[in-house]
User: Fold this.
Amino acid sequence: MSTVGTAVRWLTPEELSAWIGLQRMQAQLGAKLNRELSSSSDLSLQDYGVLVALTEQPDARLRAFELGRVLGWEKSRLSHHIGRMEKRGLVSREACASDRRGLNIVITPKGRQALEAAAPGHVEQVRRAFIDLLTPAQIASLTDITRTVVDALAAECVAECAAEAAAESALDCSAESAADCSADGAGDCSAESTGDCSAEGAAEGKS
Assistant:
């Protein structure tokens, strides 16, 4: 959104203190919890977040773009991290039943076991470093604050996430199209591929 011609709404001292305090708390708390979790289990804080996001789903799976949205990660970061977790046997990538061009990120039995083993110690660490420092009233206020911000961000994300989903399906489809469209059937396949897949996928199908 352009801000040309509009006055800058600088933060007041109180607002700036709240904003900087939030950023510092997130950075320091995240670093501390990651150190403690990594030393007491086979998971990093990022691994833990991925596995929790998956287990929160009824079928323990999410499309890649959905997982990225939940975690707030860029596509490249998500892809690299999921690749490392997949090599360790914590998650797998499976075809999406509702969209043959898409892939689901799925927690494996090994991933679930690792999460269950790490959870008790991690919860205790969260309590000591965060929850136990707050009063019930502060926790209630924090819950209301986070819900307000997260809901607003989610509303802005709707159109953007729909575009990401379409882009992901097109990329997944291009590779499948190349395999399905053999040299002999290139002519028959090209029209179908052009409609269902990306332009790149159709070009590969013709070769």
Summary: Residues 181-207 have pLDDT under 50 and may be disordered.
